[in-house]
Amino acid sequence: MRAKDLRMPLARHFNLTDDEMNALYPSGNGEIFADRISWALSYLFIAGLVERPQRGDYKISEKGLEMLSTCSNEQINDFVKTTVNAKTPKKGAKSKNEKVILCHKTSDDERTPEEELDDSYNRIKHNIQSQILTTILSKKPQEFERLVVKMLQSMGYGGEVKNSGIVTKLSNDGGIDGIIKEDILGFNHISIQAKRYALNNNVGRNEVQSFVGAVAGTPSKKGVFITTSDYTKGAMEYVESLNGTPTIILINGQQLTEFIYDYGLGLQTEKVLKVMKMDNDYWDAMDDDRERMS
Fold it and tell me: What's the gap between Cα 188 and its chain centre?
């Protein structure tokens, strides 16, 4: 069978829903279910329980058939894990105790390498996001206003307009902390309200309503309210009830740090991991050895 032909039988076997079958990694890089099938086949091949008559095709080996008839599922799994661990190259010498720990970890953790990598990436990202938020809270409110204007510019708002981002003067901001000009003459712009609040001090309906009143008096009637904390239920329900008149976007602390991280504002790239995959078109262009497969 080809790997893709195993998808539906395995989905039925494990009673997977459509959402579970099509679930993507948080990073969006690939389907988890398809990835698990691929790695399971890879492990079975390393253990000698399946063969690859030709690229993309898999066949149970004689050894695999023998183990299916004489061993329990648990024994087969243990054999595969032990064999894969023994054949996986490791950097540097490992002591006996270190090898035992490795096998124990593999037995308890059923994630694929991609899932482990994705989880590690997300843990690092969340740690940096926490540092970003802590740092923002240690700065003056005026610095936060400048930061959110720069963030929206880094996201592409303002485009090629020169000096598209403006932080309004504290004494005369009219409830608007910043402006992003979307055209050269300034006919269309985005109004910004920035609140650098403690994490447990959520923005309420009254504050949002005041901002909405200020935005309603602008020509473009578009506004973004950004806070380091979050919004009360009443504030969010009020914005939903506006139905786009004016158009108001609420960004909380978590979303704020997501944007700052994803667009690299005030951040440096520490390390780039290059993960390769097979180029199917390249290998399919080569002639198969039919004699060896017969």
Answer: 33
Long-range Cβ contacts of 139-143 (<8 Å, 24+ apart): 139/196, 141/194, 141/196, 142/167, 142/170
Q: Residue 280's CB: how many other CB atoms inside 10 A? A: 10
> 64: helix, coil or strand?
helix
C-beta atoms surrounding 152 within 10 Å: 22
SS3 4: helix
Counting Cα atoms < 13 Å in the Cβ hemisphere of 107 gives 14
Tens digits of residue pLDDT in 144-186: 999 999 999 999 998 878 778 888 865 555 678 999 988 887 7
Instruction: Tell me the whole-structure pTM to 2 decimals.
Output: 0.68
Could you give phi then psi for residue 175, rounded to 5 degrees? 85, 5
CB atoms within 10 A of CB 34: 15
Six token digits for residue 49: 């329980």
- Residue 140: what residue type? K
Domains of the chain: 3-110 (no CATH), 141-262 (3.40.1350.10)
Is there a contact between 207 and 236 (Cβ–Cβ < 8 Å)?
Answer: no
